[in-house]
Amino acid sequence: QGLAQAGGTNWRETFASGVPVSGAPQSGTLGYITGQALEESNVDLTMELVNLIKAQSNYQANAKTISTQSTIMQTTIQMT
């Protein structure tokens, strides 16, 4: 947080982010690395699928609206 983009995917520190901390794992206040461990996902798959279904439904409704509008326009043009 507080990093400034330095072009592309490069970032640099700012006053807000503070000075970067580096060092060996388990030294000072640094954490540890666990070999052959799987990271647990922080994504709620159920909510993501619900959001996907909502987005798909909205997309279909918008497509139907555009199709209906096109049909109405064609009918109006043919009437004149």
TrEMBL record:
Pfam families: Flg_bbr_C. GO terms for cellular component: bacterial-type flagellum basal body; bacterial-type flagellum hook; cytosol. InterPro entries: Flg_bb/hook_C_dom, FlgE/F/G-like. Keywords: Bacterial flagellum, Cell projection, Cilium, Flagellum. Residues 36-79 form the Flagellar basal-body/hook protein C-terminal domain. The keyword DNA repair does not apply. It comes from the Bacteria. The keyword Nucleus does not apply. It is found in: Bacterial flagellum basal body. One of its GO terms (biological process) is bacterial-type flagellum-dependent swarming motility. Residues 1-22 are annotated as: Disordered. PANTHER family: FLAGELLAR HOOK PROTEIN FLGE, FLAGELLAR PROTEIN. Belongs to the flagella basal body rod proteins family. This is Flagellar hook protein FlgE. The gene is flgE.
